[in-house]
Task: inverse folding
């Protein structure tokens, strides 16, 4: 079966209409820019603060909005119809992820502008942000597949928001609790490491490892998501 952008666009437009009608979900995209504007006016320039905002946007837009879009389809009993439609798994997952990707990208760009964050190497940071966005969207899809309603998805995504938005404090406890050193491989910590190295003048060769770690998170997350999605098709 050939990949059809027409089907992907139809799913995207449906999601856009559903999203614009649901104020309880759509309002979250304004929180990171508002916080960024506050940081910008207060003169907050620490790299950790900039990436806390970016990770907050990932959690609140990519993960939260995506999980709610999937859960809403389940709540309305329309996801099964979509699964049984002529659209392939790739077309459905691409269409269901496209709105979250666009919203996440715009939210992060606006937040960076308002916080007056200008990366020393835009190309590296852009690649890291795109990879991270894919990870959080995959995670949001996975949570949405497990949730039975938008309300349940809102609860399931809370640990994601806490761990990935403010989880960088875990690394400060790693010396006291060695088991927490594993947390340094989380994608939000790797993204902060890339941002820190870039500001110190690092090039592509210096950030290949953290980029590879984030890419590995993306592959594993989407593999699990596809398996769960196909299992839901036959449940």
Result:
């Amino acid at each position: 079966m050939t990949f059809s952008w027409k089907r992907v666009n139809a799913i995207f437009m449906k999601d856009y209409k559903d999203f614009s009608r649901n104020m309880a979900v759509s309002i979250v995209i304004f929180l990171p820019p508002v916080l960024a504007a506050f940081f910008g006016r207060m003169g907050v320039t620490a790299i950790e603060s900039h990436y806390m905002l970016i990770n907050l946007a990932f959690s609140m837009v990519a993960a939260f909005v995506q999980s709610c879009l999937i859960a809403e389809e389940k709540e309305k009993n329309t996801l099964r119809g979509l699964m049984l439609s002529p659209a392939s798994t790739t077309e459905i997952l691409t269409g269901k992820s496209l709105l979250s990707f666009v919203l996440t990208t715009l939210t992060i760009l606006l937040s960076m502008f308002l916080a007056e964050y200008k990366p020393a190497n835009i190309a590296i940071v852009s690649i890291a942000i795109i990879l991270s966005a894919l990870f959080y969207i995959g995670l949001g899809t996975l949570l949405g597949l497990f949730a039975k309603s938008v309300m349940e998805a809102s609860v399931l995504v809370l640990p994601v928001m806490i761990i990935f938005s403010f989880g960088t404090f875990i690394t400060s406890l790693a010396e006291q609790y060695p088991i927490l050193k594993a947390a340094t491989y989380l994608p939000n910590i790797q993204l902060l490491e890339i941002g820190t190295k870039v500001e110190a003048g690092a090039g592509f060769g210096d950030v290949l490892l953290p980029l590879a770690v984030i890419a590995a998170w993306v592959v594993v997350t989407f593999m699990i998501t596809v398996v769960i999605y196909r299992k839901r098709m036959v449940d």
User: Anything to note?
Assistant: Residues 135 and 218 are 5 Å apart (CA to CA).
